[in-house]
Amino acid sequence: MKLLLSFTFLLAALASATDIETSLKSAGIKVVGPTDPAYATDIFDYNLRFHYQPALIAYPTNAAQVSKVVKAGTTFNLPVTARSGGHSFIANALGDGRLVVDLSLMKNITVLQNGATVEAHIGAGNRLGDIALALNEHGRAIPHGLYAYVGIGGHGGHGGYGLTSRLWGLNLDRIIEVEVVLANGTVTNASLTTNPDLFWGIRGSSSSFGIVTDIVYDTLPRPDYAIAFEYVWNLDYTTAAQAISDYQVFVNNIPQELGLAVEWNRGNASGFVTLEFGGAWYGAEGQVESVLQPFLSKLPTPSFGSLLGNGTWIDNIATLAQGPLDTSLAPDTNATFYVKSLVTPQEAPMDDNTLLQFMKYLATEGFSTPLDWFVQIGLYGGNASAINAVPQDATGYTHRDSMFTMQIQVTQVPVVTEAGFSFVEGVADTITGNMPPDWDYGSYLNYIDDRLVDWQHRYYGVDYPRLQALKRSYDPTNLFRFPKSIEL
Length: 488
Prior knowledge:
This protein is of the alpha+beta class. The chain has 3 domains: 2-102, Uridine Diphospho-n-acetylenolpyruvylglucosamine Reductase, domain 3, CATH 3.30.465; 109-222, Uridine Diphospho-n-acetylenolpyruvylglucosamine Reductase, domain 3, CATH 3.30.465.10; 227-463, Vanillyl-alcohol Oxidase, Chain A, domain 3. Helix content is 32%, strand content 23%. It has helices at 2-26, 39-42, 63-75, 128-136, 152-157, 165-168, 196-205, 237-250, 288-296, 313-321, 352-368, 386-389, 418-432, 455-460, 464-474, and strands at 30-32, 56-59, 80-83, 99-102, 109-114, 117-123, 140-141, 175-181, 187-191, 211-218, 220-221, 227-236, 258-266, 272-281, 304-308, 337-345, 372-379, 402-411. A 7-stranded antiparallel sheet has the order 15-12-14-13-17-18-16. A hairpin with a 2-residue loop joins strand 5 (109-114) and strand 6 (117-123). Helix 8 packs across helix 11 (352-368) and helix 11 (352-368) packs antiparallel against helix 13. It is globular, with a radius of gyration of 22 Å.
């Protein structure tokens, strides 16, 4: 019955799509539908686990055109979703029978002085690499992630972590105003003084409330010096567990200018894991080695250890991106993967037994499995973190007492099998199952997990009731709906 209803809905959506397509094209809006040659390419998603058939994809060039698309969705009763860069891990920008608003033609970037503030007005169709290049031309920067092809809309709307975030905060913490199209088609603005309730929710769960078309950032001077670094070891799991225990202590005594991440991969033998310790330093030249030394001194000599880059800000971003920042130079890539995330609390670090079981699992199950996997642990907290300095109720992003955010990922071709899902969930269970039952961990919305059951609490925490009230106010018909969107 459920399959029949879904098929019936899809047929109705496709019938409506014909009328919408005619209407939008007459308004000068580019539209791609199932009969267009470009359709198969345009629905190709970042995560190839998902294969959706939207009713139409519209390509507006300004907020007024976005408004027309949104109104068409309301008129013909089609759910509407926005696509900035298309990097949702569960393809939330797509979906069967949906009207997709692709923002890729909205790529304006304007930098201007407004009193003491140097603002950047950034169209929601821009990608991180292109933004970094444009701001660098003005000697400015904002915090953001490493991968050049990620779109700013979803990235900033749901968090936006990067290695500068301990120093500057999340990407959404630098947003001072947005232009947004609401479910009724109204084009409005939101800031601390205009629609402040909407502004609160957009900074944490933007895609549930409207389509953000333009974002205004309070930019920062680019650092005078920026250098990446990486160290690699192959460790037995008891030594690896002790390393993470030492790391949890180390990060409580580091400067804001140090951004860190560790990554675990398959070891070279059963019982071993590979540890990659990396990050970036944004303080004075010549100091990073001494800052890292208290942690490095507790480990054996690494198989690899080096500073990476020439010390300039833009080279640092390119080094960390591991590729060109200009996204016009090469097409984006795809993969077939499953991801789960854990956000660990600052005040309740993982205990030694949990760390031992965690490392043992990676060193045994992780070695014996044929799966391609990694576990990356980004440092959100630690000493003087700007992320945690923001009051918990200041934005719709709830995790303001976090230590680490873990990304647990498996990649398989051609599909992720049950063994892949089980391995990822097994990694997470070695942590959550060994910590006390009241250990209040969370999950990160930008590493969204389609199999997560208690997602309302893990993603949104105590903010969820307030977000629901906001949803009922600004989108009472649930036009902007997708898996894990805020419920009415």
